Amino acid sequence: MIASILAGDTQLYHQLIRPYERSVYMMALSYMKNEADAEDVAQEAFLKAFHRLATFRSEAKFSTWLVGIALNEARSRLRREGTLRMESIDDTPDEGGHTSPAILRDWREVPSEALERKEVRQMLQQAITNLPPIYREVFVLRDVEELSNLETAVALSITVANVKVRLHRARLMLQKQLAPLLRNMNPKRRWIPWF
Amino acid sequence: MVLNCKHVWGCISAYLDDGLPPEMRDLVQKHLDHCEICSVILDSTRNILILTADDLVFTLPVGFSERLHARLDQEMTG
After folding, report:
1. A25 burial type by CB count under 10 A (0-12 exposed, 13-18 middle, 19+ buried)
2. Distance separating alpha carbons of residues A121 and A181, to the nearest angstrom
3. Which end of chain A is more exposed for a tag (fewer CB within 10 A), N or C?
């Protein structure tokens, strides 16, 4: 399909990108933190991808290539606005400190039906948005968009080891933040007083 | 070798991804079998990952697709 687009059948580009609209938007949203800016970044990313389509190499995955363009677009926009902290590209797997989870005495599974409630969805969105950027981007790609460790590493230009470390910390940060809140929201939970 | 809770917390993500070497997985499993605190941490983390992966959490804004493709059309024909 890419060859046909490059040969002049540009309308096929609409079809090509449809499956990736959500991934690109999600990547943008994880950086921009508001829907309007995220949409703008996503549109720019798809436009840039269209203009750069000839540079796409078929050995790469198209989704990873697109997400990489969205990521660069979001980063350069934040850099222009002066809100992006410069991060070392040499971050080692030992970066940062330890992350400890929330200690709870019991846990009753929160069913997916709870997501019908707007407050639950907002709580999850907010928790992900609040993660520091280096953890948020890895979490979004791995656990929301379900890319592999390798695809995530390629998209973010970091090592697989760093993907694993950042993902681990992101998950524990979310557990620490969300588990106590979700536990209190579960109406079926029986309250056991602490003596 | 016996793992303490902090060791296990450091393995939770790899355990959930089935990325631990077999011997380490067995040690973590043995710890989880008798440690309620770590079991709750594991269960709550797993549950949170299931919830955050649900498409309902992040949805495209209404009209996103239409606006995107209209802009692309404009660019392609302009």
Report:
1. buried
2. 12
3. C
Closest chain A C-alpha to B1 CA, distance in angstroms: 22
Residues from chain A that touch B36, judged by Cβ atoms under 8 A, are: 105
Question: What angle in degrees, to the nearest 10, is found between the helix axes of A160-185 and A149-156?
Answer: 110
Query: Cβ–Cβ of A143/B52 closer than 8 Å?
Result: yes
Each of the 195 residues of chain A gets a pLDDT tens digit; together they read 888 988 888 889 999 999 999 989 988 988 887 889 999 999 999 999 999 999 988 767 888 899 989 999 998 998 888 765 555 444 444 455 678 899 988 888 888 888 888 889 989 989 998 899 899 999 999 999 889 999 999 888 899 999 999 999 999 999 999 999 988 776 555 445 554
pTM: 0.84
Tell me the CATH number for domain A112-185.
Answer: 1.10.10.10
A2-81: CATH class: mainly alpha
B28 near B3, Cβ under 8 Å? Answer: yes
The closest CB to that of A121, out of B14, B53, B57, belongs to: B57
C-alpha closest to that of A110 among A182, A15, A6: A182
Residue B12 and residue B46 in contact, taking contact as beta carbons nearer than 8 Å: no
Range of the structural domain that residue B60 is part of: 5-77
* Domain extent listing, chain A: 2-81, 112-185
Cβ neighbours of B60 in A, within 8 Å: 21-22, 25
Number of domains chain B is built from = 1
